[in-house]
Amino acid sequence: MVIPDLSWLVGVSLATAEKSDLTWLFSFSGGGKVWTESPWRLVTGSLLLTTSADHGERFGVDGRVDASARLLTALQGKAVVGYAIAPRTADLILEFADNATLEFLCLSSGHPGWRAAWDGHDVQCVGGGHLAVWKHDRAEPARG
């Protein structure tokens, strides 16, 4: 697999993380975005801090888990210091300062996993560990 250039992620920070229906949208300070309808997780140090599956759950405490708030609080003020794409699965792993990783998982051999878009470029995990890469004339692709 040819690893696409996602260097636009290095040095930016996570600005928002929002869930709408089945889709999570992550916006970054540099203007890029990552969408996913697949699971994601935040690992800090040696701890799995929160995941998309936690969102809205109670886990025996008052109120429901707000995975977005947990994510944004944990990554506040931290920039992306690196990224990787897993060679067999095409999982996208964003490395933040203090040994935190935000991982976008591809769990299907056919359904799309994550999608990253920035400055007219688009990369999509199309399932089965494969990637599609293209460039648009417009700055941001249509969501879908």
Description of the molecule:
The protein is mainly β. It has one domain. The protein is 6% helix and 42% strand. The strands form 2 sheets. It has a 6-stranded antiparallel sheet. A 5-stranded antiparallel sheet has the order 5-4-8-7-6, covered by helices on one side.
Task: State the separation between the terminal residues, measured CA to CA.
Answer: 24 Å
Helix content: under 10%
The whole-angstrom Rg is 15 Å
Please describe the biggest sheet, giving its number of strands, its sense, and whether it closes into a barrel: 6 strands, antiparallel
Tell me the β content.
Answer: 35-45%
Q: What average pLDDT do the residues reach?
A: 89
The number of helical runs is 1
Morphology call: globular
Provide the low-confidence segments as ranges: none
Adjacency order of strands in the biggest sheet: 1-2-3-9-10-11
Number of domains: 1
| Elements, N to C (H/E) | EEEEEHEEEEEE
Q: What is the structural class?
A: mainly beta
Q: Give the tally of β-strands.
A: 11
Write the layout of secondary structure elements.
Layout: E1 14-20, E2 23-28, E3 33-36, E4 40-44, E5 47-51, H1 67-75, E6 80-85, E7 92-96, E8 100-104, E9 114-118, E10 121-127, E11 130-135
Antiparallel strand pairs: 1-2, 2-3, 3-9, 4-5, 4-8, 6-7, 7-8, 9-10, 10-11
Name a few traits of the molecule.
144 residues, mainly beta, five-stranded antiparallel β-sheet, 11 strands
Briefly, what is this?
With 144 residues, this protein is mainly beta.
